[in-house]
Amino acid sequence: MSHTEEKQPLVSRGHKEVPCQFIQARHVLALWAFLGFFVVYCLRVNLSVALVAMVNSTQAKSDVNDSTECHAPGGFSNTTVHTTGEFDWDEQTQGLILGSFFYGYITTQVPGGYLAERFGAKKLYGFGILCTSILTLLTPVAARLGGLPVFIAVRVLEGIGEGVTFPSMHAMWGNWAPILERSKLAGFSYAGAQLGVVFSMPISGLLCASTFLGGWPSVFYAFGVMGCVWFIMWMLLVHETPADHPRITREEREYIESSVGKKTHLKTPWRKIFTSGALWGIVGGHVATNWGQYTFLTCLPTFMKRILKFDIQSDGLLSAVPYAALWSVQVLIGFVADYLRSHGYLTTVATRKLMNSLGLMLPAGMVIGVSYVGCNHVWAVTLLTLALGTSGITMGGYMINHLDIAPKFSGVLLGITNGIATIPGFLGPQVVGIITNNNETIAGWRIVFFITAGVYVVGTIIFIVFARGEEQSWAKVKPEEEDVFKKSESSIQATVQNAPYDQEVLIPPPTKSSS
Fold this sequence. Notes:
CATH superfamily of the largest domain: MFS general substrate transporter like domains
Order of helices and strands: EHEEHHHHHHHHHHHHHHHHHHE
CATH architecture of the largest domain: Up-down Bundle
């Protein structure tokens, strides 16, 4: 069918989407991607709760390393906690177990992005979660029969499986997310990860405590089965591209393809990618965000226990509060970012820089504040929750920027940046350990918080200097190679903004140049 014969897509000024079926195909994709990341993080963090029940130990809440500066909230102190698990693993071994996931996770970031672009993101994302789910089901057997080496090997393999999920989904949105809907669609889908943390921590605690359900093994069985069920639905309801979808309306397919183009198989320009300043701007924002979030995830319980005398891991609800805040911010900020862009208040690059700066500088101020509130439990927990929650604003910044600068290679780009940004998962806790070793004091932790704030500031500066909002020249498809020519964001915005509010606007497809 020629361009002149195609039905012209409609765009609403108020909503920037076509009037088609009640539930549009790209929204179905967003829902199942959201649930996929929900499952991914359930599978990732359940061990942190189950491990407490797996290990046989007796530990005093007030040991020789604890600070004496603060008193426990409510006046409770010096209470001994007994856990009668099956395995005699010391704290160093437990740390090795918890960290083993990331050794596998970091290896499949770049390969995951490349394979998604080359062979299809739908299957890679789906089978990555399926493999992790099956390995999760086998975890109790691995721990009991295979011992520590086999148990660690299973966790490494789970990391390998989950490592492809974020790059493959970015590649998926490169084919499905219209220019002016990228923030809200991708942001909503990735926010499923934080809701997975909110859900899995208290549920894992309940499952571990239930003798009727079998104790800690039920944690792995429940979430493993959940992942397998999700995989079946994903394969049935989701399709690689709009052109592959059998139930998508013609209007929605043409609307998406007129914005992002049809899927094309291109040679990956590796040299140009790695020498692109725009990529390294994203790396700065990504590393800074992950440094803070991994520091919170791995070291916050230690601060709460040893300094404030409150073990945050003992209360599933309180453990989930910061992640509930992070989830809500990530969902909301996508709509805010797209609103600013679609209504012409800010350009794409200005929106990304604003969101990224807020998502790093606000947490920087919060963590500095924590170091000065002393033993005030309410203020400490409130500021730490706000620090983690406001870091979600970066979802409208660096996290979506891959799709702005190179939608056809967004999976590869996310694989690169996420691979580099996994390093704080190893490095951050080590730095905290060095600083606080034999120095479990508020002053020692103040250094930790100032370093975190410093990383946030550096990441902000790097992103502001190098980030770009337009598709880069090396990422563009030559006109003669495209079946559908892309409308630029500026022309779409100009046409839409000049129309009366909520009136449907006819956007004619571009014509081929005579040159």
